[in-house]
Amino acid sequence: MEICQGLRMIFTVGNPIPNLDAYTKQLLTVSDVSMEIPTPASPCVSICALDAEGTCLGCFRTGDEITDWFIADDARKREILRNAEVRRNEASTIRLL
Domain tally for the chain? Predict the structure, then answer.
């Protein structure tokens, strides 16, 4: 038996499973694995200057999005990150990998 990322998986490489009931009893439920998506990290790069449209030249968030970040839930933070990515792509022909 091998433990792989919190799940116990049974490998029977080259060996037939002699008793399916014994095999199924050894499987572990997925409840032991954390399925939470981590909270998004702030995109701040410590270049804090707003352009004429009110967009930060460092992280491409608007002033309101920067302020909202501190009270936003994870879904709102992901939305802010998507908006900033769109602005970054529109502002530059250079694409980051």
Answer: 2
What pLDDT does residue 92 have? 78
Together in a domain, 56 and 78: yes
Considering the domain architecture, whether residues 21 and 47 belong to the same structural domain is answered as no
**How confident is the model over 51-65, as pLDDT tens digits?**
999 999 999 999 999
Give the pair of three-digit tokens for residue 87. 């602005």
Cα torsion through 87, 93, 94, 97, rounded to 10: 60
Q: Which residue range(s) make up the domain with 16?
A: 2-32
Contacts of 6 (CB under 8 A, 6+ apart): 32, 33, 34
Block residue for tokens 């029977």: 12
Based on the fold, state whether residues 22 and 66 are members of the same structural domain.
Answer: no
User: What average pLDDT values come out for the chain (97 residues) when binned by 10 residues?
Assistant: 42 52 53 71 94 95 96 96 95 70
Tell me the H-state helices in the chain.
20-25, 63-69, 74-91
